[in-house]
Amino acid sequence: MKASISKANQSQGMLLFTLNMQKQRFAIGTLKVREIVPFMPTTQIPYSHQHVVGTVSIRGLTVPVIDMAAAIGFRPIALKSTTVPIWS
């Protein structure tokens, strides 16, 4: 999954965070993105929803990690060091 920030509509000044997932492009308004963090190992949660990969600790806060590809009907992603979590 590759990610970038681009201008969507210069007349309105809207910024979008775009990402490619399984050969399709998606966008999230940058106002919805709190932070893009480097990959870190997750802690699994027993009996959690199938799309919840686990949790990570970001500056003392426990944040769930959700496989958005699987959540919207794509095949689940394989977590690796180039995976980029987005915190919104």
From TrEMBL:
Residues 11-88 form the CheW-like domain. PROSITE patterns: CHEW. SUPFAM superfamilies: CheW-like. GO terms for biological process: chemotaxis; signal transduction. It comes from the Bacteria. InterPro entries: CheW-like_dom_sf, CheW-lke_dom. Pfam families: CheW (PF01584). This is Chemotaxis protein CheV. It comes from Vibrio maritimus.
